[in-house]
Every structure is written in structure tokens, then in C-alpha cells.
Amino acid sequence: xxxxxxxxxxxxxxxxxxxxxxxxxxxxxxxxxxxxxxxxxxxxxxxxxxxxxxxxxxxxxxxxxxxxxxxxxxxxxxxxxxxxxxxxxxxxxxxxxxxxxxxxxxxxxxxxxxxxxxxxxxxxxxxxxxxxxxxxxxxxxxxxxxxxxxxxxxxxxxxxxxxxxxxxxxxxxxxxxxxxxxxxxxxxxxxxxxxxxxxxxxxxxxxxxxxxxxxxxxxxxxxxxxxxxxxxxxxxxxxxxxxxxxxxxxxxxxxxxxxxxxxxxxxxxxxxxxxxxxxxxxxxxxxxxxxxxxxx
Length: 296
What we know:
Layout: E1 2-6, H1 12-21, E2 25-29, H2 34-42, E3 46-47, H3 51-56, E4 60-63, H4 68-76, H5 81-84, E5 90-93, H6 99-111, E6 115-118, E7 121-122, H7 124-130, E8 133-138, H8 141-152, E9 155-162, H9 167-195, H10 200-207, H11 215-226, H12 235-252, H13 257-271, H14 282-290
Parallel strand pairs: 1-2, 1-4, 2-3, 4-5, 5-6, 8-9
Antiparallel strand pairs: 7-8
Helix pairs in contact: 1-7, 4-6, 9-11, 9-12, 9-14, 12-13
């Protein structure tokens, strides 16, 4: 199977490398980072000259780019995937975008003879590196079955979420709401306990094994206590995902009150120079308000 890979950012680069390690023949391209492309080429990927070139040389193309406009540009822009498409070309969009836009892009792909599945991921850079991402897929079950083993190279959990294109991105939005609100809850709770004179390490030890414990707490609270906000998942990307959630909620008439509150915290962080920090930096919003640092 010949695999094309378009987009080699924080997530895409290690995902592409895992495909190479598994023995897949990969042609990769990214327009804005020669260093990233050189890196995966040094690991065995063929160097694509454009998105169209990648498509022409592949049975299936994976896109992993920031948001809906970049997905459209990669597919339908100049020298895009659609220009290099051939009969039987499949597309797996692993970007996190708005579900309704994902559906519309799939419909436009079908007009070009391209079969598309959306398959956004969760887990951040660490899980992209070790190949244990959670992958949420939307689209025809036959397409999912065809590429499940390929996706399992990059993910520890690969789930078909529905026959409708955009189903994967709907589940991803649900995931991002839960993650963001959970991080904010941790930041609020640990700020409270620190101000009350209880060491955050003790709070962590006491509650992590109970109902309040979560994968989010285990991953993010140690970072908060260490003051380590190096990005596994950037504030600006969390803002992008929650914007997609809010837009979808508005379109469907679904109230997203908690999501709106956390989005305001994230926007404050962005406006104060923290857009490239890890989303666990929500703690900094509380530290700014309270004047109290949460540290071991």
C-alpha cells in the first residue's frame, strides 16, 4: 500500500514516522517546513514535490493540517490533492475540523472521485510519538475496515463513530470539551487547595485514585505543579477546537456554557502571550487572578 502524508507539524511528523517504522511506503509533503520534510525523508519517506504529486503516487492520502481552510487548500488549492487524484484514490483527513465542514469537504471530494473518511485524533504529541493516539473515524464503514490496520499503527484506539462524514469530528469535539473543562476544573481545584494551605502534591495523591481521578489529571496536574507548560497541545489549538465546538453548538441549538467559560480563559492566555504554551497553562489564568502559584 502506497501512503501519502500531507502535513508534518507537531502531530503529523511523528505519525508519519510511525508509518515508516511499520514498513509502509510513504510519500510526504509539507509546503512551509523544509526541516520537517527533510526529517521524514531521512527516515525513509519519499519527497513529494506538491500535494498533487503526493496524490498521484499514493493509494491513500492522509492529511494532518491545522483547520478547515488548510484542509480545503490541501485538497482543492493549486497543485492540490484533487489535481493529482486518480481513480480509486482514498483520503483520510486526520485534522480536527468542524463536523459540518468535514461533511461538505467529503461531498466535494466525491465529485472529484475521491473517497474520504474523517479520522481526527486525541492524545497530543506524546501519544503521536508512541503510536497510541485515540482515533475517531467518520464515513463509510467499508472505508474504515479497509484502513483500520493502517490507522492502528498510529493509534492505540481506533473507533468507527458513524457512517456519516463528520461523525469522527463530532466525537473529537466532545473529547475536546471534556478535556478542556477537566483541565480548568483541575486548575480551579488546585488553586483553591493551595490557597487553603494544602500542598498540591498531597491533593494529587489523595484524589487521583478516586472518582475525581482522570487521564487528564494524571497528565496535566504534574505539569502544573512543575510549572512546565511546554506544549503537548497548544493553547491556540485548543482555542481552535473549542471555536469549532461553539460554532457547531450554535448551529444545532446545543448550549455549551462550560465550553464558553473555558474558551474565555484560553483567549485571555492567548492575549497574554501564552498561545504556544500547553493548554495546562489554564492554571496561569487562575494564578494571575489569585496571585498564588500552584507548585510542588
